[in-house]
Specification:
- The complex is a heterodimer.
- By secondary structure, chain A is of the alpha+beta class.
- In chain A, about 35% of the residues lie in helices and about 15% in strands.
- Chain A has a five-stranded mixed β-sheet, with helices on both faces.
- The termini of chain A are far apart.
- In chain A, about 45% of the residues are buried.
- In chain B, about 30% of the residues lie in helices and about 20% in strands.
- In chain B, helix 5 runs antiparallel to helix 8.
- Classes of the chains: A alpha+beta, B alpha+beta.
């Protein structure tokens, strides 16, 4: 007997569980937007190249257009709708507002989710393609504008808001580091 | 996209049983290449075997040196691993030079090895392509080929292998481990990718139904003095037009050991053995580096629009080895 080509799956999104039937061909992006009315995550290229569809999977940034929904069952999914804490904006969101890190806003949810990933990855000591010495002994590289640009290069912005996006990520990273020092995190 | 069944493998034997039973079954790791190709219709599996939850996600140090890298280790985790950064820095640099942060978080080591070429004719169902449809022709030879192969190609196919990771692994004599229903096996990476010849559709020496379980990197002290350099048409987030993984051990101005592998110039990662032979035991000078590059590139067959790759690779060899020699002198 041919295997079934659809399944009922449960997706854990922003702390809530959603059970839905999906054709296996359904991407997580389409599941979010078309089945669950979570339209904050945007479809740009649908080929994994623009980053507009960026979400967090188990805390790590990923492009939801290449993630099959059926394969996302069991993962912890965070979308842009889950970034704020109720009415309290996340420091990354606040920084994008403060520094005007967008024009049309279409790439912005992906930029913000990606920035969350960048800050986390840098805090974990990950080097990047522009890090001169990748050895652990060299210590983590400072999060310079050059490092931010490289780490954010998976997120395109056709309006060209890159300069303020980089500034927003830098400000958010500083805010988070300052918060961490205060709370001893 | 063709409809397909989906099974999540819980153990390696279950995965190979599923893969072995259906020639139209494919492994699903991060999906960053496979799902893309399924969207464009190039890949049409009937069944996806999701291998992400198999216990193949560790990087382990071996006694005496060397690393065992599991097939489902993500690209990000591989690049960030302290032992990789310390003992095989060119591998970290190679992985970080590829794709985007999002894609590296999703992509697996096994999937990176198996990714398909990005030749525009291969990915376009409306075009002839000997790799996709054997015997249909290769439009790249007379058409768009500015980023196609100058080494190891044939009249049947001039596509390049796009992986950065595989270039560094090639320089370090990686061995690919796999499992089939008949038991485990291994292939040196140097023999993993088949020569193009007149069979460009046959890309790897993996037996049908095999599951890649990991990659072994033998101990290599020279690898700690290594570098990956990638040249591309943008500052980031683009495939290479030429790349190099190099490692160098210099003592008193003499090359004791050297590893060189080229990317974006051949149907597979290109180990530059002729260059290595020329250099070993000789002076670590710019002249020697250039002569070795010339020896390797003598076999290059260029097309009308990709001739630039020859001086590009020559310059990359000289620049990268010069940099490594200077670091050794410090």
């Amino acid at each position: 007997m041919a295997p079934s080509t659809s399944s009922a799956i449960t997706l854990n999104i922003n702390g809530e569980k959603h059970t839905l039937p999906v054709d296996h061909r359904t991407t997580l992006l389409d599941a979010l937007r078309e089945h669950l009315d979570l339209t904050g995550t945007k479809k740009g290229c649908d080929q994994g190249q623009c980053g507009a569809c960026t979400v967090l999977l188990d805390g790590r940034r990923a492009v939801s257009c290449l993630q099959l929904a059926v394969a996302a069952e069991g993962r912890v999914i965070t979308t842009i709708e889950g970034v704020a804490d109720g009415e309290r904006l996340h420091p990354v969101q606040q920084a994008f507002l403060d520094l005007d890190g967008y024009q049309c806003g279409y790439c912005t949810p992906g930029q913000i989710c990606s920035a969350l990933g960048v800050i986390e990855e840098h805090a974990a000591g990950w080097p990047s393609a522009v890090t001169d010495d990748v050895r652990p002994e060299a210590g983590p590289p400072p999060l310079t504008a050059e490092e931010i640009r490289e780490r954010m290069s998976g997120n395109l912005c056709r309006c060209g808001a890159y300069v303020s996006i980089v500034q927003a990520v830098a400000q958010a990273a500083q805010t988070q580091m300052a918060d961490a020092e205060e709370t001893g995190a | 996209m063709r409809e397909f069944g989906y099974e999540r493998a819980v153990d390696v034997s279950g995965a190979v049983a599923l893969l072995g039973a259906d020639p139209d079954a494919r492994c699903l790791g991060g999906g960053t290449n496979l799902v893309d190709l399924m969207k464009s219709g190039v890949e049409r599996p009937a069944l996806l075997v999701d291998v992400r939850e198999l216990p193949l996600d560790r990087v382990e140090s071996m006694k005496g040196g060397g690393l065992r890298i599991g097939a489902t280790v993500t690209n990000s985790d591989l690049a960030a691993h302290p032992e990789v950064r310390r003992h095989y820095p060119a591998l970290t640099q190679a992985v970080l030079a590829g794709a985007s942060g999002q894609l590296r978080n999703m992509a697996t080591v096994g999937g990176n090895l198996l990714q398909r070429t990005r030749c525009g004719y291969f990915t376009d169902l409306a075009k002839p392509c000997n790799k996709r449809v054997p015997g249909s022709g290769c439009p790249a030879v007379e058409g768009e080929h500015h980023n196609h192969a100058v080494l190891g190609a044939s009249a049947h196919c001039v596509a390049t292998h796009p992986s950065d990771m595989a270039v560094a692994l090639t320089a370090f004599d990686a061995v690919v481990r796999y499992e089939t229903v008949d038991g485990p096996g291994e292939l040196p990476l140097a023999e993993f990718y088949l020569p193009v010849g007149d069979t460009p559709h046959a890309e790897t020496a993996l037996p049908p139904g095999a599951l890649i379980t990991g990659v072994t990197l033998p101990a290599a002290p020279v690898a700690a003095h290594s570098r990956y350099r990638k040249v591309r048409e943008r500052a980031s987030y683009a495939f290479a037009i030429g790349s190099i993984a190099a490692a160098l051990d210099v003592q008193d101005g003499v090359v004791r050991e050297v590893r060189l592998a080229f990317g974006a110039v051949a149907s597979r990662p290109w180990r530059a053995r002729a260059a290595e032979r020329e250099l070993t035991g000789g002076p670590a000078s710019a002249e020697a580096f250039a002569a070795a590059a010339d020896a390797e590139l003598a076999a290059a067959k260029t097309l009308p629009h990709n001739g630039y790759k020859v001086p590009l690779m020559r310059n990359l060899v000289v620049a990268t080895l010069t940099e490594l020699a200077a670091e050794a002198a410090r």
